[in-house]
Each structure stands twice: as C-alpha cells, then as structure tokens.
Amino acid sequence: MNERARALTAGVALLERAIDYTLGSLRVVSPAVLCRPTPCARWNLQALLDHMQDSFEALNEAALGHVATTRSPVPVGGPAPIGGPALRNSALRNPALLLRDCATEVLGSWAGTIRTEVISVGNVPMTAPMVAVAGAIEIAVHGWDIARACGERRPIPPALAEELLDLAHLFVTDQDRPVRFAARRRPPALGSAQDHLLAYLGRDPK
Asked: Where is the Mycothiol-dependent maleylpyruvate isomerase metal-binding domain positioned along the sequence (predicted)?
C-alpha cells in the first residue's frame, strides 16, 4: 500500500469513528428538544441538524470527487423527508431519524472509496484524506453539541479526542474564525483532550 492509500485509509477510519460517536448522540434527539439552544451560538438544535444534513451531503459528494459550493436552500422546518409515508411523517416529527440514515450513507460512501487524487471543494483542491479528517472533526464536535442540547453528557472517546485535537490545530486557523468557528476559549486546568478540543473550537467544555 502506497503512502497516499495509507493516508486515505487512516482518514476514512477516523471519519467512521466520528460518525459512530455522533450516531449515539442522534439517538437521544426527540421532537420536544428541537427548539433548545446548542453550544453553537445562535443555533438551536433544529438549525444544527439542518447544518449537519448539508455537511453529510457534502461528504457524499466528496466521495465522488467534487463538492458544490452552493446547494438548494433547506426548507423551513428541516430537510425534505424521503421514503414512504411512514418514514416521511417520522422524519417531519424528528429530523434526527433522517440524519441517522444520511450518516450511514456517508459511512458506506467512504468505506468503498479508493479515490486518492485531489477532490475539488468548490474551487479549492483538497486531498481525500484532508476532506475525511475535516469531516471527522466537524461531525464529532457536532455530536457533542447535539448531546449537550439534549441534556446528555456523552464524552468524545479519549483516543478519538486526542487524534482530533492534534488535527484541529492543523485544520482550523485564525482565518476560520469567527465564520466557521468561534474564538478559542481557555481550557480548564488539567483538562482532558476533549476539553482542549472543545475549547480550541470555541466551546465551553464544562
């Protein structure tokens, strides 16, 4: 296996672990909590789920080699549901159900990819491992956001948090603030890798 293939394998494995963690957070979402605030400033849980729907769609496109920079607007009230009447009604009541299906689709898309060449993200060239790693950071941290909005404490697994922390320092710069991420915060004394990751990405880890 050459170096590019090894990097892709590692990036996909990290993305799979991030999605597995976030799937657990999505299971605690109910229609009653969609209006709750999240650690993402100015976003309630419904808005965060809508954003994640867009992120999963982008990751699916990336597996095919190109990510569009513009998408159709997400309808007010959540993503457009798919499937038969029962699935559509369930997704309207709880969009997390549809998002779980999207996450599973992303896992399948990336598990089967052998793409090692450059992926076009709009007009910005990125390698497949870079896209997978960036997706892993975003998905894992939003998984934590979802759990907190639902009143649950679901720590990011320590080994995953350590890897994401190292990579976040490479992938998230001052140019990403305040549009993609809020200003970094000071982590607690003797904080864990998760605490440092969340603080670096503008969240209060307490």
From this structure: 16-147
Annotate 69-107 with b (16+ C-beta within 10 A) or e (fewer): eeeeebeeebbebeeeeeeeeebbebbbbbbbebbeebb
Does 68 score more than 80 pLDDT? no
**Domains of the chain, first to last:** 3-154 (1.20.120.450)
Q: Where does 32-175 have alpha helices with state H?
A: 45-64, 85-93, 95-111, 128-149, 158-171
pLDDT band at 117 (very low <50, low <70, confident <90, very high): low
- Give the chain's end-to-end CA distance (angstroms, integer): 42
In contact, 194 and 204? CB cutoff 8 Å: no
pTM, 2 dp: 0.84
Average pLDDT, the chain: 83
Upper half-sphere CA count for residue 102 (Cβ side, 13 Å) = 26
